[in-house]
């Protein structure tokens, strides 16, 4: 019987994992500067958190959720994204009673039953951030600027920041109607999905990837042309703050996003080097979601970064490096093996990566192993060395050798 992993679910191995860890560490550093604290919410939630939060008529909820009935006969779903669970937690744990704003970040796997392709997986990882309690454009600009700084700090420049405003409950209905009027003229020519979207969520037609639908919607009314006074001013201020902070951005009036909770500012960061799945991060404002989940009216904004896509871009720039031990201790004979083990443990206790030989094989085969694992040094302990209290070291890369007293081993490897 040969087992294999599920389609669209990847193993993440060394040396790639070191790229992942570096990205996560940098993200933590940047988040700390902006006062975002980590929050860990469960992977499994009650299904209605997502149907309510993301929207019944979205692709995610309609087609992509891993939903099942648990042994207690409840419908539960593996989270397809992090915002809805964080909002559920915010309301449930009364986090709105704490000083505003509350800023949180999270990392972890998300699950969507999509057709796997380059950059698209069924289990994928996000690093996300959510800020609650501030309605003013300064928070939009802060979150977007933080995302830019984070991406730059991990070594990714030259990405496109696409921005849009999709309005609010006040201006959306008129825009929706303008779209319906426009689409109704040639409705029969749109793909079956879009014909359904016409009924359920016409904004989503702007996002359809079918080429013919793209042609048909040329000249469709733009949301920016239908913003109410409040949304217009808000968006203009966000843009002028981004200009002041020198965050380069372009306007994309078709950026409607695949989740229903958004209001006002939406954004997506894209790269030209990723093929079809080019969004490395995306987010926006969702000023009504906390209230919809039963909390007090609380404005909020956030984003999520797709880790696999970030790692792909970083690996294109530089091959991941496999870390290597500082020293491999080769031993000959039982007594030397015990002394070797003791030295290895002493070195480790002093912060040095040391490997032992596990008592196996000739000196030659042990040195071969030292070479294979890339150890910088081999330390050789035989009977004579034990008696003399002097150990032989060999620099595996340069071929140099010498002797070091047992008492000096730690300082020798700390300085070499
Ligand atoms: P999203 O656009 O669905 O937004 O996902 C954010 C990012 O996750 C995408 O830009 C992409 O990089 C990555 N991603 C999404 N699906 C996949 C997949 N199947 N395989 C690999 N990567 C993927 C959200 O999830 C929102 N919760 C973001 C947000 C937070 N909005 C406000 N706060």
Please give a quick description of this structure.
The chain is α+β, with helices and mostly antiparallel strands. The chain folds into 2 domains: 16-171 and 227-317, 2-Layer Sandwich (BirA Bifunctional Protein, domain 2); 327-415, Rossmann fold, CATH 3.40.50.
Please characterize this protein's 3D structure.
The protein has helices at residues 16-33, 47-54, 59-64, 83-92, 137-153, 172-184, 192-200, 211-216, 229-244, 289-292, 307-317, 334-349, 363-372, 383-388, 409-415, and strands at residues 37-38, 44-46, 67-69, 75-78, 102-111, 123-132, 160-165, 250-251, 263-270, 279-285, 300-306, 327-331, 354-356, 377-381, 390-395, 401-405. With 416 residues, the chain is α+β, with helices and mostly antiparallel strands. Helices cover 38% and strands 21% of the residues. The strands form 3 sheets. Strands 1-5-6-11-10-9-7-8 form an 8-stranded mixed β-sheet. A 5-stranded mixed β-sheet has the order 13-12-14-15-16, sandwiched between helices. The chain has 15 helices and 16 strands. It has 2 domains: 16-171 and 227-317, BirA Bifunctional Protein, domain 2 (2-Layer Sandwich), CATH 3.30.930; 327-415, Anticodon-binding domain (Rossmann fold). The longest helix is centred in the first third of the chain and has 18 residues, at 16-33. The site of histidyl-adenosine monophosphate has 25 residues, from strand 6, strand 10, strand 11 and helix 11.
């Amino acid at each position: 019987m040969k087992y294999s992993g599920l389609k669209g679910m990847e193993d993440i191995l060394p040396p790639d994992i070191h790229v992942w860890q570096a990205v996560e560490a940098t993200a933590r550093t940047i988040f700390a500067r902006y006062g975002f604290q980590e929050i860990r919410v469960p992977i499994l939630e009650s299904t209605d958190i997502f149907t309510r939060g993301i929207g019944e008529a979205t692709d995610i909820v309609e087609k992509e959720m891993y939903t099942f009935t648990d042994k207690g006969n409840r419908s539960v779903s593996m989270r397809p994204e992090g915002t809805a669970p964080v909002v559920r937690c915010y309301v449930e744990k009364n986090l709105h009673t704490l000083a505003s704003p509350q800023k949180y970040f999270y990392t972890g796997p998300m699950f969507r039953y999509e057709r796997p392709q380059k950059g698209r997986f069924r289990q994928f990882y996000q690093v996300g951030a959510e800020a609650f309690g501030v309605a003013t454009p300064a928070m939009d600009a802060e979150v977007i600027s933080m995302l830019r700084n984070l991406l730059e700090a991990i070594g990714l420049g030259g990405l496109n920041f696409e921005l849009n405003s999709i309005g609010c409950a006040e201006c959306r209905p008129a825009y929706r109607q303008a779209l319906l009027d426009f689409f109704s003229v040639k409705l029969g020519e749109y793909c079956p999905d879009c014909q359904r979207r016409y009924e359920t969520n016409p904004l989503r037609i702007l996002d359809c990837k079918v080429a013919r639908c793209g042609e048909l919607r040329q000249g469709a009314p733009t949301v920016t042309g239908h913003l109410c006074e409040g949304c217009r001013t808000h968006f203009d201020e966000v843009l002028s703050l981004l200009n002041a902070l020198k965050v380069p951005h372009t306007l994309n009036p078709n950026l409607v996003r695949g989740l229903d909770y958004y209001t006002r500012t939406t954004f997506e960061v894209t790269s030209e080097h990723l093929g079809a799945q080019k969004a490395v991060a995306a987010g926006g404002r969702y000023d009504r979601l906390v209230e919809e989940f039963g909390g007090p009216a609380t404005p909020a904004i956030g984003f999520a970064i797709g880790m696999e896509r970030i790692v792909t871009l970083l690996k294109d720039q530089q091959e991941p490096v496999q870390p290597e031990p500082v020293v491999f201790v080769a031993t000959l004979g039982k007594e030397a093996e015990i002394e070797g083990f003791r030295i290895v443990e002493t070195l480790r206790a002093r912060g040095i990566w040391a490997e032992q030989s596990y008592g196996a094989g000739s000196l030659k085969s042990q040195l071969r192993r030292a070479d294979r694992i890339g150890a910088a040094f081999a330390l050789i302990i035989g009977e004579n060395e034990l008696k003399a209290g002097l150990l032989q070291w060999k620099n595996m890369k340069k071929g140099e050798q010498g002797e070091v007293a047992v008492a000096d081993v730690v300082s020798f490897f700390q300085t070499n």
